[in-house]
Structure formats: C-alpha cells, structure tokens
Amino acid sequence: MKRWKKMGCLSILLLVAAVCCTGPVLLAAAGSRQDGPTTGAGVDAAAAGIPPRMLAAYLTGASRISAHVPTCQGMRWQILAGIARVESDHASGRTVSAGGDITPPIRGPRLDGSGAGGNTTAIRDTDNGRWDGDSEYERAVGPFQFLPETFRAYGKDGNQDGVTDPHNADDAAASAAVYLCGKGRDLTDREQLRAAIHTYNRSWAYVDDVLSGIDRYDALGAGPRIPSGNVGAVIQAALAQQGIPYSWGGGNAHGRSTGICCSPGGQDGRTVNGFDCSGLTLYAYAQAGIDLPRTAAAQAGSGRRIPASAGVGALLPGDLVFYGYSPTNDSTIHHVGLYLGDGQMINAPRPGKPVRIDPITALPDYAGGARLL
Fold it and tell me: Phi, psi at residue 115, to the nearest 5°?
C-alpha cells in the first residue's frame, strides 16, 4: 500500500484525475438520486427494521466465514439478523459506534439459578467479570448474548482491530457465524439450519421464532444472487462495507482507512475513516488474494478489459465497472464500481455518501469493465 505524503498544491491538482473520485461535473448528475440506507440486497434498512450499523456487522460476519470455517455453506446476513433480533432486538436502545462498539453493554440476567429472567440453573463465573461485570455468576453478553465461556471458545475479531470483544457488533456477529457453522454445516439445508439454531438455544420454540425472522429478511433480501467461489467472496466483502463513509483516498487491502486531502468538493479524507471507490474495489479483491493498483485508472489495466462498445450486457458479477471522460481512453477514468448483476453495482459514490448499491446508470460516462476472475 502506497503511503501518501504531504504535497504542494500542484501535486494535489495532478492527483485529482488519478485518485478515485466523482468529480465536479458528475456531482450534479448524481445529486438528483434519492439516497437511503440499504441492505446487502438493496433493501431499505428501515423496511428490514435493522439499524444500518448492525446490518453492516451482519454482512461482515457472513462475508468472512470462509476464513474461519471454509467448509460452511449458506451463511448469510439474514441468519445472523434472525438470531440478533431475538437475542437483543438488534442492540435496541444502545449506541453503536462507527467501530462497532456497543454502549452501554448488553448483559443478560444473573444466571444464579434463582429463576429471575427465566434461569433455573446456576452457572458460576468463568471470566472474573471481564465481560459480564459479575465475578460470581455468569451473564450472557453482547447483541448475540454469548456466555463468556462460549465466546472465549468461538470469539473472532470481526473488525480486525486486534481486540475480540462480545460487546462489539462486528466481533459478536463474526463469532455467531462461526458458532452456527459448527464444523461445516450447509445452512442452505433447512434441517441443518434448524439444527444450528437449536444449538444456540435448545428450545424448538426459539428455533421457530428465529426462523420466522430469517424468512422475513430473506423475502426482503431477494436481490442480486451472490455467486460461489472467489467471485462471491469479492462481492460479499464489498457488500459488507455498505454504510461505511466515503473517504477521499481511503481504503486499502486490510479495510477502511483515513485518506488524503482533498477532493474537488473539499473533503479532507484525513478526517474520515472509510473508502473511496478504488479503495473499496482494492479491498474486495484482496479478500480473494488479488492485488489491485490504488487508483481507478490504474485498475483499468488489470485483468481482461471489457470495452464500453461491448455494452453493459458483456459484464458478469464481480467485474470492475469504469467511468471515464473519454470511454476509449483509460487515462481519463475517474471512477470504479463492482458489478453485482441486473444492472447494479456496489459503489463508494462520492464524499458525503456511504458505500451503497447503485444502478450502473448512476453515472453517465460508462467506460467498460475488467474481468479478473
């Protein structure tokens, strides 16, 4: 990853054409669109009844399951949302920071066998109160209500910040995905899905409650079909970043980052932790082991180029989608997205707008694509 240094005004002006941006000419054209939070399949987050930051955690947890349980099939955000809906109503009443930390922490009733909160079996403390604030008895913790002992066994660092914490939405969602996948379940099979949920809480009434939520989210999420293999991993990685802020020059192979100064509209990327368009595609492809150049124009030289003259119909899910002031001149390319199929792309549009699903027609100067997989 290139390290940006302080530069004079002339250098900044020269970079404007190279760093991924929408540019002043395009802002007016794109500004007429209606903007709203979306889910992994282009569904209004309000319709799903899920706070956007929690939804981002579910998307991330589902998209990265292959890194932890490679043989697991069918893990998707709807399953994680179904569990969290029952366990904490998606962290209702709490504040979730940009980094996923939930305050105040979510702690269940004291499991002292007293019958309060429905518990009849005493479970002695295993974490010395580290996560549950109780050094005598256990309490379930976080939006997925893990017992501390279970979280120690299955906990994952979902946001890759070096800390694994059940009170962090990303960590909790990634850990729940690992727990539900077990040693490699096929969650597209209804009976295996039921069995996975039953291990979470050994009540068939609980299973039915969770499944009713999953079915509802599946119905809302009927959108672009995610391919299998590396193409699917790239798309899932990009979709998991929905809601992350746009940062001029932001994003790298490890995820979101602060960027550089300054966009044509004046955004100082050094103050925003997020992605610009080429930072998003760079990150997504890194999850499949492919290193992309940093800028949109340079990425046009990767893989097999699909000329604009071939039309949008020549694109396949996972292809890079380019926009340029001259469709036949790659040096004029100023923007890149990731094609999802059905005329849609996952896209970091411009300063002030988060990563989201957009139609390919959101920008007027389509310049073809590139196929890397």
Answer: 95, -15
Half-sphere exposure of 322 (CA within 13 A, CB side): 29
What are the residues whose beta carbons fall under 8 Å from the beta carbon of 367, sequence distance 6 or more?
A: 300, 308, 322, 323, 324, 326, 327, 328, 330, 332, 333
Q: At what angle do helices 204-220 and 77-88 cross, to 10 degrees?
A: 130
The Cα–Cα gap between 159 and 173 comes to 10
Peptide bond preceding 104 in cis form (omega within 30 of 0): yes
Closest by CA to 232, choosing from 37, 20, 40, is: 40
Residue type, position 90, single letter: H
Q: Are the CB atoms for 348 and 276 separated by under 8 Å?
A: yes
180 within 8 A of 197, measured Cβ to Cβ = yes
**Cis peptide bond prior to 9, omega within 30° of 0:** no
| Residues 91/169, Cβ–Cβ less than 8 Å | yes
Q: Which residues contact 119 (CB under 8 A, 6 or more apart)?
A: 109, 110, 111, 112, 113
Torsion sign, CA atoms 144, 356, 41, 341: negative
Q: How far apart are CA 10 and CA 8, in angstroms?
A: 6
Between CA 52 and CA 40 the distance in angstroms is: 11
Question: Per-residue pLDDT for the chain (373 aa), expressed as one digit of tens each?
Answer: 332 222 222 223 334 434 454 333 332 222 222 233 333 445 556 668 899 889 888 988 887 888 899 899 999 999 999 999 999 999 999 999 878 999 999 999 999 988 776 777 889 989 999 999 999 999 999 999 999 999 999 999 988 789 999 999 999 999 999 999 999 999 999 999 999 999 999 999 999 999 999 998 888 755 456 777 889 889 988 988 877 899 999 999 999 999 999 999 999 999 999 999 999 999 999 989 999 999 999 999 999 999 999 999 999 999 999 999 998 899 999 999 999 988 889 999 999 999 888 889 889 999 999 999 9
Contact 258, 273 (CB under 8 A): yes
